[in-house]
Amino acid sequence: MESPTHNLPSLFKQLGLPDDAESIDKFIATHSPLKPELQLADAFFWSKCQADFLRDEILDDADWAEVVDQLDVMLRKGRGV
Question: 19-77 in CATH: which number?
Fold first, then answer.
């Protein structure tokens, strides 16, 4: 059985955030760049539930890990990745 493939809009929806392209771009522009030493889940702008979800997905290398990594890169470098 293949594991589910998630994309950035579905991650934003999972996090309870607006998931249209304009809102995602605005979120990334507003919150980037993240400091290199800061773990994505430790950023100030996440709620506890959002941070726990992001942390668990990466630690468990779960279904969402790839798209969480994508978001991490985008928040460190800006949208043009």
Answer: 1.10.10.1130
Closest CA to 49 of 4, 15, 79: 15
Rounded mean pLDDT of the chain? 92
Domain boundaries, the chain: 19-77
Alpha helix stretches (DSSP H) within the chain: 8-14, 21-31, 48-59, 65-77
Query: Looking at the whole model, is its pTM more than 0.90?
Result: no
Q: What is the DSSP letter of 4?
A: P
Nearest alpha carbon to residue 63 among 12, 11, 9:
11
Q: How does DSSP classify residue 45? A: T
